[in-house]
Specification:
- This protein is mostly beta strands and about 100 residues long.
- It has one helix at about 85-90, and strands spanning about 15, 25-35, 50-55, 60-65, 70-75, 90, 95-100.
- The protein has one domain: SH3 type barrels, CATH 2.30.30.
- The protein has 1 helix and 7 strands, in the order βββββαββ.
- The longest helix is centred in the last third of the chain and has 4 residues, at about 85-90.
Length: about 100
């Protein structure tokens, strides 16, 4: 029997990496990541929660997949300048991101 897992962070939330100079906006959550390339979670091993995000550091924007334990909320209020954000999100007045009702192509 599998246990229900709840994500700590939300789609559209701005987060940062605990160790590295990286910030991003979450656009997807993978609740079944086992840490290998597409292989199922072995029996007895708990899957890790992994977030996909539009990320940026001091050099370039990129897409990242990062385990939940390596992330923390970013309360700086600074915008994320990744070009992929505008296809999926609208900017809220409070500075956060809300998923668009209609996706732009």
């Amino acid at each position: 029997m599998s246990k229900t897992r709840f994500a700590r962070y939300n789609i559209g939330q701005v987060i940062r990496h605990r160790l590295y100079e990286m910030r991003g906006v979450i656009f997807d959550v993978d609740t079944s990541f086992a840490g290998t390339d597409g292989e199922p979670v072995p029996d007895g091993m708990a899957p890790r929660l992994v977030y996909r995000l539009f990320a940026e550091d001091d050099e370039i924007p990129y897409v990242a997949c990062i385990a939940e334990n390596d992330l923390e909320p970013d309360d700086s209020g600074e915008p994320i300048s990744h070009p992929g954000i505008w296809a999926l999100f609208d900017v809220r007045e409070a500075g956060g991101y809300r998923r668009r009702r209609q996706l732009m192509n």
